[in-house]
Amino acid sequence: MFRWLSTTLNPEAYHGSGRRPPFFEGWYFKVVNAAGDRRYAVIPGIYLSREPGGSHAFIQISDGTTGSAAYRSYPVGEFVPARKRFDVSIGRSRFSTGRMLVDIDGPELDFLSPVAWPVTLLSPGVMGWYAWMPFMECYHGVVSMDHGIRGGLTINGEYVSFDGGRGYTEKDWGRSFPSAWIWMQSNHFPETGTSLSASMAVVPWIGRSFAGFTAGFLHRGRLLRFATYTGAVVEELSITDHEVSWTIRDREHVLEITATRAEGSLLLAPSVQAMDRRITETLTAAIEVRLHARSSGRSSTVFHGIGVNAGLEAAGDVAGLRDLWTRGLGVGS
Q: Is 84 a residue whose pLDDT tops 90?
C-alpha cells in the first residue's frame, strides 16, 4: 500500500514492482537539435508477459528525420529501476529526468530546467484524480513539458550534437495501450518555452467506455490544463487522413488545435498479449494553436502560433473514438 501511494504521487518513477503480468512501462524522450533538422524519440521500458519467455526490457529509437526505427530487447534482469525516483538502467544505458545515456561509454544528454506537470494529493499529475483508480487500463504521465539540452549522442557511428536543442519527456504504464487514441506534442513554437501536449483515448470504465482527454499548454511560465476531470469540454473533433482538429473550452479559455499529419516511423506498442501492436508516429507534423480568453461573453486571442517538429499519433479505431465523443459518453455532451 505504501509503495502504491508513493508511486502514485511520483508518476515519473517506476510503477511495476510487484505487479502481475501483463504489465508494461515506458518513458518517451523526444530530443531535437538546435537546427531542428535532427529529431529522435528514445523509448526505454519493460514488458512483463503472461507467456514464458515473453518478458523483456527494451530500448526503442525512432529517427524522425529518416522515418527509420530500431527496437532492441534485453533480459528483464538488465532493467534496474531506482525505488523512489525516476532513474532506470537498461543494459549499458541509463535514463532519468535530467539525463540520458544511451551507452554508458558514449556521450550523454543533460536536460536543463525540466518543467514538470504539477503533482498534488488530489491531482497527482496529468491524469488528475483518475491516477488514484487502481483498475485503469493505461496510465499516463508528463515528466517534462519542456527543457533545454546539452550534450550529444552517437547514432550509427555519427556524433550528433544537441547543444541548444529542446526536449520533452512523458511516460505510460499499465496493462495495455488503449484501443484507440490521438496524441500530439510540440515545444517548437516561435517563442521558446511554449509547449503543447494533448491526447484523447478510449478509456474502459466500469463496464463501459468513454473518450477521456487531457491537454496542457505551457506559455510564459504558466501551464493551462484542460481535461475530462477539470470540467473542460471538447466542442469539436475532426480526424481525417490529413489533419486532426479539435476545440476545447473551459470557463476561462478556448483552445483550438489543428495538427497536420505527416509520414512517420513504425513503432511497437503493448497489448495484453505482447509488444505486438504497430503504430505510426511522426516527428515532422505541424500544430497550429490558438488560445482565446473568455471574459464577459467575449473572446480575445491570447496566443496564436505554429509548433513544428511535432509528434503526432492517430492509432487504433479513431472513428470509434470520435463516435464515443459524439454520443457524449464522456465528453462533448
A: no
As a whole number, mean pLDDT of residues 154-178 equals: 96
CB 206, CB 327: distance < 8 Å:
no
Which helix (H) or strand (E) covers residue 5, if one does? helix 2-8
**Amino acid identity, position 160:** V
Which grid cell sits at 149? 539540452
Alpha carbon 82 to its chain centroid, in Å, reads 21
Rounded Cα distance, 203 and 197, in Å? 18
Yes or no: say if 98 and 114 are a contact pair by the CB < 8 Å rule: yes
Joined grid coordinates for residue 248: 476545447
Contact 49, 294 (CB under 8 A): no
For residue 64, give the amino acid letter: G
What DSSP line would sit under 55-68, residue for residue?
-EEEEEEEETTT--
In Å, what is the CA distance from 301 to each residue of 81, 165, 297, 316?
A: 45, 29, 14, 34
The grid coordinates of residue 231 equal 470540467
**Tens digits of residue pLDDT in 95-113:** 999 999 998 778 999 999 9
Short-list 58, 91, 24, 98, CA closest to 273: 24
> Reduced to 3 states, what is the DSSP secondary structure of residue 11?
coil
H/E element, 323 = helix 318-326
